[in-house]
Design brief:
It comes from Nocardioides vastitatis. By secondary structure, the protein is an alpha/beta fold. Helix content is 49%, strand content 12%. The protein folds into 2 domains: 155 residues, NAD(P)-binding Rossmann-like Domain (Rossmann fold, 3-Layer(aba) Sandwich), CATH 3.40.50; 100 residues, N-(1-d-carboxylethyl)-l-norvaline Dehydrogenase, domain 2.
Amino acid sequence: MHIGLVGLGKMGGNMRTRMRQAGLTVVGYDRNPDLSDVDSLAAMVDALPSPRVVWVMVPHGEPTRSTIAELKDLLGAGDLVVDGGNSKYTDDTVNAALLGEKGIGFVDCGVSGGVWGLENGYALMCGGSEEDVAKVQPAFDALKPAEGGFVHAGRTPGAGHFAKMVHNGIEYAMMQAYAEGWELLEKVDLVENVPEVYDSWRHGTVIRSWLLDLLTEAISADTHLDNLRGYAEDSGEGRWTVQAAIDHAVPMHVIASSLFARFTSRQDDSPAMKAIAAMRNQFGGHAVHTEPPPGGEANPDV
């Protein structure tokens, strides 16, 4: 199979390598000439035999939309575009219709595996017609793990990215639970070997997972995570998952809470918690924490 790959960053570059290792001919294009096989998107398309398949791995939103619009002008009837980035599922309907005006097929594919995908393979969740998915199947087979890891989530464009969005929402909640457990173990002097506790959970327990493996490795290298700041971005998919839950009246307490926890991480001193402290002080006389006066101590009686 010949395939074009647009976007050769941390994910795309490793995907190009994995597909080549499986015997596929990959022509990669990136705006960074040090990474690119060709000097333009047009040159990449020209290097592919018909019918052409182009996989897009660029940031979601406008970068993806503009790339697909440019590909529409370069490709023709019978060709196919795969959006493997983290696009919002509602964008897939628009992009599929745009390409369909020229008879160009469209498949959306949620990709999970991060920087470890080159070695372990990528979990792939795709949406699109059975005919279009079949055209990309050799690439899916090359990228997925040896066993499992691939699903044709639905025939409607957006099915793959919707599945990946929910996957990432669940990931938010799992990470938050592991993190809160770690904080409690760190806080209580009773447990002396927190990294060893987490390592023990990796074997035989009902909460073992790859995320647990990764956190265990992190706290084994930096027990108290002193070298990190407690700041966590959200990629967008957590927000989209919660919004979809609202749109469909699906209760999503844990995932929503884990999303809001990330917002808290961006505040040096939470305004909402200041208000809670003030209310507790007003109704119950509970002590409040204040900055120390010049030359004095903060809350000496607390």
